[in-house]
Amino acid sequence: MKQVLLLRLSMVFVAFISINQVALADNDSAARAIAGVLVNLNHFPSDADKAVLMEVANDESNGQGFRAIARAVHNMQHAASAEDKELMGRIMAADQADPRAKALAEIVANFSHVPGDAAKATLQGML
Questions:
Q1: What whole-number distance in Å separates Cα of residue 61 and Cα of residue 29?
Q2: Residue 78 lies in a domain
Q3: Would you say residue 13 has pLDDT above 80?
Q4: Do the Cβ atoms of 66 and 79 come closer than 8 Å?
Q5: Is 6 inside a domain boundary?
Q6: Which residue range forms the structural domain that includes residue 96?
Q7: pTM
Q8: Is 58 a domain residue?
Q9: DSSP type of residue 75
């Protein structure tokens, strides 16, 4: 009987661990923070913007996609690097990715010096 109970508890624990990235992620604040930086970004993030982005990137309560996007924006110099663009493509293609992460990844992948009008409208909607 104890073994059955232990097995059930183990299965519940494994299920919780499997979904905790989605269930516990603070994606709302991460999306707002990244959008707040991108909407006014001019060529590269300021030191203050970089500090905000690193907070998002280092906060394990944020989803992995948002953390990767924050790092990509942090490292941006006029445009995302080829490596970061590839990563943004993977986020956009991921079925389980948050729709806001997909939208942000697309904006980062296509960013060139400043966000375009369509990107700004999308970003404003996230603020």
A1: 10
A2: yes
A3: no
A4: no
A5: no
A6: 26-126
A7: 0.79
A8: yes
A9: T
Q: What residue has token string 């073994």?
A: 3
**For residue range 69-119, what is the model confidence (pLDDT) as tens digits?**
999 999 999 999 999 999 999 999 999 999 999 999 999 999 999 999 999
Measured distance between the N- and C-terminal CA atoms of the chain, rounded to whole angstroms? 52
Q: In whole angstroms, give the CA distance from residue 123 to residue 127.
A: 7
| Residues in Cβ contact with 85 at an 8 Å cutoff, skipping those fewer than 6 apart | 108, 109
Where do we find the tokens 């989803």? 63
The total number of structural domains that make up the chain: 1
**What is the dihedral sign for C-alpha 50, 88, 103, 40?**
positive
* 12 beta partners: none
| φ/ψ of residue 57, rounded to 5 | -65, -35
The reply to whether 17 falls in a domain is no
